[in-house]
Amino acid sequence: MLNKIKETVGYLEGRISQKPEVGIILGTGLGGLVNEIDIQHTIPYELIPNFPVSTVAGHHGQLIFGTMGGKNIMAMRGRFHYYEGYTMQEISFPVVVMKFLGIQLLVLSNASGGVNPDFEVGDIMVINDHINLMKDNPLIGKNEDEVGTRFPDMGSAYDPALIEKAFGIAGKHGIKLQKGVYAAVSGPTYETPAEYRYIRAIGADAVGMSTVPEVISARHMGLKCFAVSIISDLGVPGKIVEITHKHVIDAASKVEPIMTRIIKEMIEG
Where in the chain are the domains? Predict the structure, then answer.
C-alpha cells in the first residue's frame, strides 16, 4: 500500500505547481463546484497510477487542481463506490493520496434519500454523524503506522466548528440547512419501504451509498472533515415514489449552486 501511495503521490507532484490545502470529493450531480475553481491542472483518473476509474453517470472521473477562496484546492470530480466492485481500500485510496500531498481539510458532498419526515426534496443536510451499514471498513487489514493509528476515534468525525461555520454562512444568506445523521449502505439498489423504516428507526436522517469510507480513512489520518448531503428523494411513509438515477442527478443539480456557495465561503474563511 505504501509503495502504491508513494508512486501515485510522486506522479501527481511532478504535474502540479502548488501544494493542495483542501481536498474536495464531489458526488452525484454535484460537479458544478468545479466551475468556481481557478483550474490549473486537470488529470483524468485513467492516467493516474493505481487510481480507480469512475463508472457511474454523473461522475466525470477527473482530478482537478487549482485555487478557490484563496486556498489551493484538489478536487475529485467523481468518486468511487463499493457497489462498483471496488474494495474499501480502493475507494479510500484517493483520500490517502490527498493527505500525503498535503491537504488539511476534506470536504465531501453526496446525494441521498431523506428518511426524516421533516425533510423535503432539495434540502441540504449538513452531516454531523454517520452509521456504517456497508458491512466493511477501509481500515480492515494490516495497519500502516505511517498513514494513521490502529484504532482511530470517530467521536467527532465531522468537525463541529466547521458545521457551526456552515450554519452561520447559511443564516447570513437566508439559506435553509438541515443537520443530521447519514447512513451508508452498499447499494446499488434503492431501499425498500421496510429498509427506509429500519434506517430511520436506528437513528439516521438520510441514507446513501458513499462518503463514510472516505471519512473513516480521513479520520484515520487526522484530517478534519465537512460533508453535505443533498436530499434527492424521500424514504418517508406516504412520500415514497419510484426513483431512477436520473431523478437523483436532476434533484441534486438543482440545489448544487446553493451548496457551492456555502462551501466556497467556508473555504474562504
Answer: 2-268
